[in-house]
Design goal:
- The radius of gyration is 34 Å and the shape is rod-shaped.
- It has 3 domains: about 1-120, no CATH class; about 130-135 and about 235-340, no CATH class; about 140-225, no CATH class.
- The protein has helices spanning about 70-80, 145-150, 170-180, 195-200, 210-225, 265-270, 295-300, 300-305, and strands spanning about 45-50, 55, 60-70, 85-90, 95-105, 110-120, 130-135, 235-245, 255, 315-320, 320-325, 330-340.
- It starts with about 45 loop residues before the first strand and ends in a 21-residue tail after the last strand.
- It is an alpha+beta fold and about 350 residues long.
- Strands 1, 2, 3, 4, 5 and 6 form a 6-stranded antiparallel β-sheet that branches.
Length: about 350
């Protein structure tokens, strides 16, 4: 006659059976792999059936264990095995309860079914990757066409005004907005034009710009603002990368500059071969890789994205992670937002280590 084993800690789940053959299993002591009907008293009975468990392998592992139990024990177990209950078996495997079912069988006996789902030692769902365009639409003076106005008399490295006695790009942009909002019935608007004396001859900041070029561009800026062109259409991209895990993962708060590949995004999502930061994004010299979010914009829209034509390459900011739990898996989503001009300030959004000075 089989005898009851010791008071075991674990309820068998996954591949473990309640055979009572070792110190980590519940159930009556029987020979390995064999379950027998008990002739013991009706109390304290817990024995797994011979045809249990049933295992279904898919994106996750689903285990259905069936036990013969005394009715009182069955009620106690079923009340504690609600959906989502986290369980650890004797082998250290993890599972979540999908549902439990208790059916009365004979006087003072019951049949307990426990169905659990586990991603432990199973394949994770595939990673997900998406790139979504988002409109940025910067103010019109950020367009490269007006770059010589915007940067006039401004140190390109520090952003400081070079000659405080002359107009700077900051003042020119503000003055153009005032002029654009001036009443059209005025016969003369002093803000609508600038003179060479007001501009001076700055030694830097606007490259090879001359006061005459800046005066001409300033007049066009005022005209376009008066016509209602306050911004220009430009899209940025939100890069979204999701992956799955069995346990919750640390979450990144974001709000700093970082290339997506520095944040863990696999290169096979980003490029068919590793991007060479020493290459020329405008000509594709020296194997820049097929990075469509860096190389292609510089080729098809040189004015916005190619530095050789006054544009700026894409820069990416890390956004806060998002995490959610669905049945068995934790889904962690990381994302970045990339745009070229008028979007990020390195004093406000610091660079992630090793990302400074390298775009894309």
């Amino acid at each position: 006659m089989p005898t009851e084993g010791p008071d075991y800690e674990y309820l068998p789940i996954r591949y473990v059976r309640a055979e009572g053959g070792d110190t980590n299993n519940l159930g009556l002591g029987t020979s390995p792999g064999k379950a027998v009907k008990s002739t013991e008293a009706d109390t304290g009975h817990f024995e797994e059936r011979a045809d249990s468990p049933v295992i279904e392998r898919g994106e996750t592992n689903v285990f259905e264990h069936t036990y013969d139990v005394d009715w009182e024990s069955g009620i106690n177990y079923s009340q504690s095995l609600s959906r989502g209950t986290y369980m650890v078996d004797a082998e250290g495997g993890w599972a979540y309860v999908l549902f439990s079912r208790l059916q009365h069988d004979k006087p003072n006996r019951g049949i307990l079914q426990v169905t659990t789902e586990s991603g432990y030692q199973s394949d994770c769902p595939p990673e997900e990757y998406e790139v979504i365009p988002e409109e940025v639409n910067p103010p019109i003076w950020f367009h490269p066409f007006f770059k010589k106005v915007r940067l006039w008399n401004i140190d390109p490295d520090t952003g400081d005004v070079i000659d405080i006695n002359k107009l700077s790009g900051y003042q020119l942009v503000s003055q153009a907005q005032v002029a654009a909002n001036a009443s059209q019935i005025l016969s003369r608007d002093d803000n609508a034009v600038v003179t060479n004396d007001q501009l001076g001859t700055t030694p830097g900041g606007a490259g090879a710009a001359t006061p005459e070029e800046v005066r001409l561009l300033y007049g066009k800026l005022v005209t376009k603002l008066r016509r209602g062109f306050h911004e220009f259409k430009m899209s940025g991209w939100r890069v979204i990368w999701s992956r799955y895990s069995w346990m919750a993962q640390p979450m990144d708060p974001g709000s700093y500059m970082q290339r997506p590949t520095d944040g863990g995004l696999p290169y096979y999502f980003w490029s068919v071969d590793r991007w060479n930061p020493e290459s020329d994004p405008g000509t594709g010299v020296d194997n820049p890789g097929q990075n469509t979010l860096y190389l292609l914009p510089a080729l098809v829209n040189r004015k916005l994205y190619n530095e050789a034509d006054g544009g700026q390459p894409l820069k990416f900011m890390r956004l806060a992670d998002h995490q959610q739990f669905n049945r068995t898996w934790f889904k962690l989503t990381s994302s970045w937002f990339g745009a070229c001009m008028g979007t990020f300030d390195k004093d406000i959004y610091p660079y992630f280590p090793d990302s400074e000075g390298v775009e894309g």
